[in-house]
Specification:
about 90 residues; mainly alpha; 434 Repressor (Amino-terminal Domain); globular
């Protein structure tokens, strides 16, 4: 099964759940700029972020906040781990 979460869909789910970009960034262990780039299609959304967002969305619909907390505790730390390293001109 392929999970099809486009940048537009990612943003729509976040807004429907009434989460800010800052909250998502904090929970997923990334910078707010990363979330902005995902939602504007300037950077690919990591598969783990798509999966976690979908799981949170599904549990929000069911009203299962406990499961949402569990997903965040177990899976969010893995998202930052798959992010590409940041390029810094100073590193040259």
């Amino acid at each position: 099964m392929k999970l099809h979460v486009t940048p537009k869909r990612f943003r729509a789910m976040r807004k429907e759940m009434q989460f800010t970009q800052a909250q998502i960034a904090n929970w997923f262990g990334v910078q707010v700029l990363s979330v902005t780039r995902w939602e504007t299609n300037r950077s690919p959304i990591p598969g783990s972020a798509k999966i976690l967002m979908w799981l949170l969305y599904e549990e929000q619909i069911k009203g299962n906040k406990r499961a949402m907390r569990t997903y965040l505790e177990r899976f969010a730390p893995h998202i930052a781990a798959v992010m590409p390293p940041r390029f810094s001109p100073r590193a040259l």
